[in-house]
Amino acid sequence: MTKNELIEKVAKKVGLTKKAAIDAVNAVFGNIRESLSKGDKVVITGFGTFKVRTRMTRTGRNPQTGSAIKIAGHKLPGFTAGKTLKRLIK
């Protein structure tokens, strides 16, 4: 499902205009994005948890030369599905 398909489904299900559905979907994703950029986690009960994960600095190998290289640590977004979502998919 694409973002546009999600917007259309929200508009039909809730009875909003397409513009109002666009604003609603963008507001939800914007708030999730904003919270993650601050380092907060976002818990949506019955769906899952979005949080920032930290990868530590580690040593890797250059596949062409085989020499050891240092891979810098960094932060990235992560998602953990909630129990209800996991049960629904099984």
From TrEMBL:
Any Gene Ontology CC annotation: cytosol
Claim: Cytoplasm is one of the keywords in the record: no
Keywords: DNA condensation, DNA-binding
GO BP terms in the entry: chromosome condensation
Claim: Lipid metabolism is one of the keywords in the record: no
Pfam families, sorted: Bac_DNA_binding (PF00216)
Database matches in InterPro entries: Hist_DNA-bd (IPR000119), Histone-like_DNA-bd_CS (IPR020816), IHF-like_DNA-bd_dom_sf (IPR010992)
Single Gene Ontology MF annotation: structural constituent of chromatin
Superkingdom of this protein's organism: Bacteria
Family: Belongs to the bacterial histone-like protein family.
Protein name (record): DNA-binding protein
Lineage of origin: Bacteria, Candidatus Curtissiibacteriota
